[in-house]
Design brief:
Blueprint (H helix, E strand, L loop, with lengths): L6 E3 L3 H7 L7 E7 L7 H13 L2 H4 L1 E4 L6 H9 L5 E5 H9 L12 E17 L14 E3 L6 H13 L8 E3 L3 H9 L5 E5 L5 H9 L2 E3 L5 H9 L4 E5 L11 E13 L4 H12 L2 H5 L10 H4 L10 H9 L5
Parallel strand pairs: 2-3, 2-4, 6-7, 6-8
Antiparallel strand pairs: 1-2, 4-11, 5-8, 5-9, 5-11, 10-11
The chain binds glutamic acid.
Organism: Sulfitobacter undariae
Pfam family, one: NMT1_3
InterPro entries: TRAP_TAXI
Amino acid sequence: MKMFKTMTVAGAFAGAMLSGTASFAQEKFVTIGTGGQTGVYFVVGQSICRLVNRGTADHGLKCTAPSTGGSIANINAIKAGDMDMGVAQSDWQYHAYNGTSEYEGNKFDKERAVFSVHGEPFTIMARTDSGVKAFDDLKGKRVNVGNPGSGSAGTMDVVLDAKGWTKADFSLASELKPAEQAAALGDNKVDAITYTVGHPNGSIQEASSTVDATLVSVEGPEIDKLVADNPYYAKAVIPGGMYKGSPDDTNTFGVRATFVTSADVPDETIYQVVKAVFDNFDRFKSLHPAFANLKEEEMISAGLSAPLHDGAVKYYKERGWME
Ligand code: GLU
């Protein structure tokens, strides 16, 4: 996918001439890859940009955060130099930097971590009339596995592999985007939808309010092994009562949403972005319920496997969070 390249614009030139000063602010456009509009990545990107753009007069950065296909699409766009930053699941951050899984033979050495954000449970919601209560009940059912380029669909592949299943074990494996899947569940086009995502989110909310549906547990020895073998996975619980039709806790596993960039993005850019977030941290946390419990100390290490970007390190040292 082609997005804005970083570019510079002498935006304030006319103003500088009028006021008779020789200096003018240089505006530089930076782009953050997000996800579907009913997910949480979109809010992460929009929130960061909102904070960055409050300081454009000082630092010159103008930030945009368009909707994208998700983690893998974002990492690929950053690698290609088409985007500056993006949100990505901790498992895909890991695989891109280490050249494993989908990134075998396609290592992203210059990938850099910035911070991590909210947890993202691997989430399945099924129509109540499908009878699906646990992952194994999905055999023979119509399942939306998610759009190509999403971290969510990638993690679904990992789970299928771990179970010794393939997509052929479903009677239908659709590739609808997050914004389309709630309606597909409501219209009985699929029995279940899958989404690795922070909670609460619009997509699952919409699905559970459109049709009688319930969250599905994802447990068992194969999941225990995935969590034990891989640093970027952890057990996760979706709290009961968050969505209509799911009054009890749902056990599953999950990843963390992380914010990534490339070593090719200037230190000053990442420094200013990180500063905008952490200088205004209470404001940032208030922008989505999934951010409410974020803690600075955790965000600069949990779920990060690529090296931290130098511009982020500069800020974290200034705050005394790193030696
Ligand atoms: N984790 C999802 C993905 O990478 C995106 C979730 C979201 O947009 O909040 O595909």
